[in-house]
Fold each of these.
Amino acid sequence: MGGLALVARAILNDRRTPLVFSALFLASMLGVLVSATSDRERAQNDVVRRLRLQDFKDAPLVLREVRHLEADTWYNDVEIELKNTSSKPIYYVLAYLDFPDVPVPSAGIYGLPLDFGADQNIDYRRNADPNDPFIKPGETLVFRIPESMRKGLKTQYEKTPDAMKRLELRLNVISFGDGTGFVAERHRDGRIKKGHAEIKRHHRRDRATAADSSEPPQDGCGTCSRYILAPKELR
């Protein structure tokens, strides 16, 4: 004990002692900061959002990049970049951004529409005006959440954050502006009248065949009439 007392007295009498204690204090504080930063990073990593493009055969748009999906305000900042991989310009796109894990009051899907192009070009059979906006082959389209829908999406996210980690993008209508396009993931050619003639010829004999051959609705939804759009007040 006598030896320890002498050592302690020597440390206290040493002019460098305040510096030693200051260094120890700074090291301790840095350790706390590093620990807090690590805990915060772990918490952020626990909230991982992922977006998947519902692809289909011969789809002329491919997902190139998703930006700012991990941001705290992703509903304001997210950017979904798609590339036109076809040999034609694209004059209209109607897509739905789905949140399949969000509970809805009835059988349906919680999501919101995203579109590009002149409204009249939603009809793929229409020849687009050359002055209408379009996406050239090889060029990209960037979808953002419409400003009018961000508040409702934010409200839903604050209610069910865990249910909004999985996002799916569905391409429902793609129009090339020349009478052709894709509707409900099926290639359509409005210049061909054969399909309509077959429907009319077989209508009385086989109603099921006629129903199967008919064109999907022009909004491209098919069975998506059950969509629950966000925000609710804008439906």
Note: The chain is about 30% helix and 25% strand.
Amino acid sequence: MRRFAPWRVRAGLVLLALLAAYAVLVGLRILYPIDHTERLAGFARRNGIDPALVASVVRCESRFEATVVSSRGAIGLMQIAPETGGWIAEQLGVPDFTTDSLYDPDFNLRFGSWYLRYLLDRFGDRDEALMAYNAGPSRVDGWLAGVGDVFPETRAYVERVVRGLPVYRLYFAFPWLLRITPSLLI
């Protein structure tokens, strides 16, 4: 019976550990996809928002699919309704806004990041701002005034966004992780 040299056993264990770690990273990319990283981070920082928060919102809204349209007509990466997009365009002084502009990742991330900053400033609380992003500011005003109960879908939305924050913070803290794992977005 041939015995393995201790260094071979250790090398095999190290290789196994590295493969397991890589599998975890690939799994994270599947569960927490990301795309448009530089642009997303740029618009987030321009609006004074943690890029991980914007990325987690995008994940929950569209899973980084730029052309997705919701059943309620919200468009693009950050799922901006055309009416909200028109209002944001007025606030930002963007004269050439069209609904089709919301399909453009740069445009959508610019508007969505600005709107998220607006909601954070308006409500002064991250979770309330996320509730407003999901259900609308007037609904949140009502809930805060004691009118009705927060929708279960809205509670679940806030929990999903918050759950994604540590993963997206990891991505932005160690961008090389994104370079060594494949993007599984089509």
Note: The radius of gyration is 20 Å.
